[in-house]
Design goal:
Elements lengths: L2 H5 L22 E5 L2 E7 L9 E7 L8 E3 L2 E8 L1 E6 L2 E6 L3 E4 L5 E4 L6 E8 L3 H8 L1 E3 L11 H14 L5 E3 L3
Antiparallel strand pairs: 1-2, 1-11, 2-3, 3-10, 4-12, 5-8, 5-10, 6-7, 6-9
């Protein structure tokens, strides 16, 4: 299609939006501890005009979220390490270099079953998971920071908060 014909279909440039450059290790990044992992919010829905969010995930050995599902697409690229992906009751391994797409509404989870940390780049479209993590997690200092120490009572309160807020973010936590 000639450029002049294509231009007729494209809206004008949104001059109010700026270029975003994010580095997970840069000062000022938002690092949040969720379910024993540390997630760095690289780009929020606000940064992308509501199109997607991008999250850098540090998953220590044994880490990963409980089974859950949500009404948005979620894609992971494994940058370092290896994770076990549980999808609709089946498991599959995904190592560095692999990209995994989780269709909307499908029950899934992942877990680092290795002895080394894993690093994932997670994109969700549309966004919202970024805000869920910021609302239920604890801010930590760095991308690889361990989770804060919590008593059993604090852990129960945190889980109850996540369960209560999940519907607001179009998510269902599939835990007893």
């Amino acid at each position: 299609m000639p450029a002049t014909t294509l231009a007729a279909f494209l809206p004008p440039d949104e001059m109010s939006r700026d270029l975003s450059v994010a580095n997970a290790d840069a000062p000022g990044m938002r690092h949040v501890s969720v379910a024993g992992d540390t997630y760095t919010i690289l780009l929020t829905g606000a940064d992308t005009g509501g199109r997607y969010c991008l999250i850098d995930m540090h998953v220590p050995p044994g880490g990963g979220p409980p089974p859950h599902r949500h009404d948005f697409e979620e894609m992971f690229t494994v940058l370092d390490g290896e994770i076990e992906v549980m999808f609709r009751g089946q498991t599959e391994m995904a190592s560095a270099g692999a990209t995994v797409n989780i269709p909307a509404n499908a029950a899934h989870a992942f877990r680092n079953v290795s002895e080394e940390p894993a690093r994932l780049l997670c994109m969700c479209t549309p966004p919202g998971l970024d805000q869920f993590f910021l609302e239920i997690g604890d801010r930590v200092a760095t991308r690889t920071a361990p989770p804060p120490e919590m008593s059993e009572e604090e852990r129960k309160r945190r889980n109850a908060k996540a369960m209560a807020l999940a519907p607001k973010y179009r998510t269902e936590l599939l835990v007893p």
